[in-house]
Amino acid sequence: MITPVMPTYARAPIAFDRGEGPFLYTEQGEKYLDFGAGVAVNSLGHAHPALVRALTEQAGKLWHTSNLYNIPGQEKLAQRLTALTFADTVFFNNSGAEAVECAIKMARKFHASQGHPEKFRLITFEGAFHGRTLATIAAGGQDKYLEGFGPKAEGFDQIPLGDLKAVEKAITDETAGILIEPVQGEGGIRVADAAFLRGLRKICDDRGLLLVLDEIQCGMGRTGKLFAHEWSGIEPDIMAVAKAIGGGFPLGACLATERAAAGMVAGTHGSTFGGNPLAMAVGNAVLDEMTADGFLDHVLEMAKLLRQRMARLVDENGDIFEELRGEGLMLGLKCRVPNTDVGAALMDQHLLTVGAGENVVRLLPPLTVTPDHIDDAMAKIEAACAALREKQTKGAA
């Protein structure tokens, strides 16, 4: 018999009642250190006072009017985002998948508006994850997400990550652009190196294509810069953002240059709830925190500390872990044992993490993490390794 909540998730048998900073608490008062951050969403931790204040104040004034009218919070957040980035314009929506859908439509519409409607295909990369809509699962190209949903949506050509020659070879007269995550999250914390991203930018410039970035998980301070592509010195034409931009409140955005957005005129795209006053109040509060003096410096400092500690831990537990991956506070542990076993052992130690492809466990702590929190996490990971080792020994006996 089906459950009232549709059973599309393999949920852990636990529920949380409240959160504070990097910690979550069950109804029974059990305390967990959250190094999953709602899959890189709660980047300022739980119940951040500035975010709670912004949401509460807005909730007492106005929740929703729809995009039939001007929404001052949108104007404010869009102006701030364009001032901080490559972009000239922003479309607000509610989620990462919606942001990527907007980016895909925009890339296609750009070429159509230039008199080339045949240019609609995007080159994407193996291991990618761009969302759960029909278009975004096609862009991601992973069989486990495509199976059972009919013919794969047309318009996506997938190639190995890091291979510029394969990119060149994949370009046809129908190619509109290239879609890539600077750091793959769901795919196993696989980093696209700076030289590869610079190569993609040059190919797009030389061939008249659009470079579209998916920074839904790796953006908003996660790597120590506001956006991950900044490390490579390039700028995209279009970028999808979500997750941390709302600090836990549903919010996504599609940023673009004026040129790339040339075809996006009135009536070409829309959203009932996108850019609502509640989301805009929180989004502006998140940006206040992330652009404050010293915030990104703190992220870099904690990232260096966490990487150093994790590298040593991986070396000392080579029977459990194979490799440490990632950038900033977006790290992955490639495991020698099933990552589901590792995740369960960490949860037993009251440390929350997130699984990923290639048998990886993701560490995505809030960007407000402190050395004490890192010490706590290291102790819990060590204890989990010991428990896994003991379990293996008993199993062998």
Shape: globular
> In total, how many beta strands?
17
N- to C-terminal separation?
A: 40 Å
Quickly give the CATH architecture of the largest domain.
3-Layer(aba) Sandwich
Structural summary, described in words:
This protein has 397 residues and is α/β, with parallel strands linked by helices. It folds into 2 domains: 18-34 and 293-396, Alpha-Beta Complex (Aspartate Aminotransferase, domain 1); 49-290, Aspartate Aminotransferase, domain 2 (3-Layer(aba) Sandwich). It is built from 12 helices and 17 strands. The strands form 4 sheets. A 7-stranded mixed beta sheet has the order 4-12-11-10-7-5-6, sandwiched between helices. Strands 1-2-3-15 form a 4-stranded mixed beta sheet. Strands 13-14-17-16 form a 4-stranded antiparallel beta sheet, covered by helices on one side. Strand 13 and strand 14 (330-335) form a beta hairpin. Helix 2 (49-59) runs antiparallel to helix 9, helix 3 (72-84) packs parallel to helix 9 (277-290) and helix 10 (295-316) packs parallel to helix 12 (371-396). The radius of gyration is 21 Å and the shape is globular. The mean pLDDT is 96.
